[in-house]
Amino acid sequence: MSDASAILNAVLGESLQALYVHASAVSGSLRPQSDIDLLAVLGRAMTDDQRDHLLADLMRISARHPARPGGPRCLEVLVAVYLRDRVTALL
Fold first, then answer.
1. Mind listing the UniProt keywords for this protein, alphabetically (predicted)?
2. What is the CATH number of the domain that holds 66?
């Protein structure tokens, strides 16, 4: 997971506001072939170049499904953009 975090930081820079691990990795139901679910929260939308680089770099470290026991795990990365002004306007 540290590789994924490093990639997200390198590609997204200051726009990456938070990175969360969620689903089975934190609920206690992680199995040998479970993927690792990450949620990246951004302060602004990604550019097309960032999206392309992020996808290519993450695919290099993600296992293919189904993952082999003892090998690297598959990654599932969700990206959400937090638009503070829009959220505040809705409150």
1. Transferase
2. 3.30.460
